[in-house]
Structure to design on (387 residues):
């Protein structure tokens, strides 16, 4: 049987970053993807993802600071410009479940430049927004956009350049831990690896379930819509930031990016379905809800031009899962809970460190895998603000 140091399951953003970092460190790496590379059935396709340090939790702010450094490192290595700084606004209604003070203290603690703005101050600087009076706004100048599909393709390409073997259209059918590692069973033959990085997102429990190690996971079809403003120049990245509306219902959006449209979506619309049940058909009800929000909050956002579906796999509290399975420590799980793209190169590096060194210097203390012996998995169960 072929042997590798590490086998990666899943070549979305997180698995691709793990394969890149593993191979960069010289590990003999094989990576499996059940579909073609760059497919649209998971969470890592399409164009833009928000990058930001503005979280209401110090742990995520520090991890995001590290991610900016890791993106810069990968951009330098690859010679590709993947990130674009636009500045970012997080709108927090004062009668909602989230508190602007959490952001202010987390960002302040980490020394991240930020401002707390009133609706009038927002309107003076970005007249495109129309906010009700009871909203507090956090502005962070470092927020911006990372290109999703280009980043994933670049990570895969550089993993290959470093010697990683990538086997696409090769579903992993099962993982069988043994005394020296894990047998990875595929339709095209089995391999043995010292460690497995499981980055299968919505499909994670298909491989953990037979090992009696399922993690709490909710899967849903999400959708993003591209609006066509009459004056697209007013939504240029120099004049319009990325934004997030944090309330019971969360919405988010972007300036123009490669086309004269602005993308917006609702985060976590609870359109629950498993990967097998996915329709790939946008929900007209969710589109109507988003269009109504946009016409109120960004009145010049224009007509909805097209809608694209994608998939969320989230933990109940939106915390990441990053760490070894307690009963099978040679299997290391990475799950991004619907807000991990901004952390992609950092999570990939951490996964490589866990696989090769057994530890990481980054703080992943609350991302442990829950098990019967450790039901909380180290998680403190404070809900995390996505997106
Ligand atoms: C619409 C949308 C918008 C988002 N916006 C943001 C944002 O603005 N900012 C941000 O930071 N994050 C954002 N996210 C979250 C972020 O994109 C995801 O957290 C991240 O892409 C997850 O990557 P992944 O590799 O874990 O999952 P995926 O991309 O789903 O990859 C998992 C891969 O594993 C493969 N696989 C599964 N099982 C097997 C198997 N048995 N054998 C072989 N292969 C297998 C799958 O085919 C898939 O390719 C967004 C997500 C979505 C869907």
């Amino acid at each position: 049987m072929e042997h590798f140091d590490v086998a990666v399951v899943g070549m979305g953003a997180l698995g691709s970053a793990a394969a890149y970092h593993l191979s960069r460190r010289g590990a003999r790496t094989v990576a499996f993807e059940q579909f073609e590379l760059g497919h649209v059935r998971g969470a890592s396709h399409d164009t833009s993802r928000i990058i930001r340090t503005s979280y209401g939790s110090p742990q995520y702010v520090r991890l995001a600071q590290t991610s900016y450094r890791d993106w810069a490192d990968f951009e330098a290595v690859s010679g590709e410009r993947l990130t674009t700084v636009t500045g970012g606004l997080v709108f927090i209604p004062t009668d909602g479940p989230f508190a602007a003070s959490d952001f202010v203290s987390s960002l302040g603690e980490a020394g991240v430049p930020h401002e707390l703005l009133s609706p009038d101050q927002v309107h003076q600087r970005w007249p495109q927004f129309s906010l009700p009076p009871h909203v507090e706004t956090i502005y962070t100048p470092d927020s911006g956009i990372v290109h999703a599909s280009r980043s994933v393709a670049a990570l895969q390409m550089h993993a290959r350049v470093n010697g990683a073997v990538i086997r696409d259209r090769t579903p992993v059918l099962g993982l069988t831990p043994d005394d020296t590692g894990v047998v990875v069973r595929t339709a095209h033959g089995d391999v043995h690896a010292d460690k497995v990085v499981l980055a299968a997102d919505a499909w994670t429990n298909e491989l953990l379930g037979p090992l009696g190690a399922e993690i709490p996971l909710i899967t849903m079809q999400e959708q993003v819509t591209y609006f066509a403003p009459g004056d697209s120049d007013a939504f240029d990245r120099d004049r319009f930031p990325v934004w997030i509306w944090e309330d019971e219902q969360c919405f988010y959006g972007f300036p123009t990016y490669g086309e004269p449209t602005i993308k917006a979506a609702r985060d976590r619309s609870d359109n629950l379905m498993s990967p097998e049940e996915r329709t790939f058909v946008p929900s007209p009800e969710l589109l109507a809800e988003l269009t109504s929000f946009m016409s109120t909050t960004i009145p010049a956002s224009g007509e909805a031009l097209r809608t694209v579906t994608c998939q969320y796999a989230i933990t109940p509290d939106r915390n990441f899962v990053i760490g070894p399975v307690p009963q099978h420590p040679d299997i290391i799980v990475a799950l991004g809970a619907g807000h991990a793209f901004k952390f992609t190169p950092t999570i990939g590096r951490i996964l490589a460190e866990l696989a090769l060194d057994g530890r990481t210097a980054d703080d992943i203390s609350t991302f442990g895998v829950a098990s019967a012996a450790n039901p909380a998995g180290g998680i403190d169960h404070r809900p995390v603000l996505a997106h």
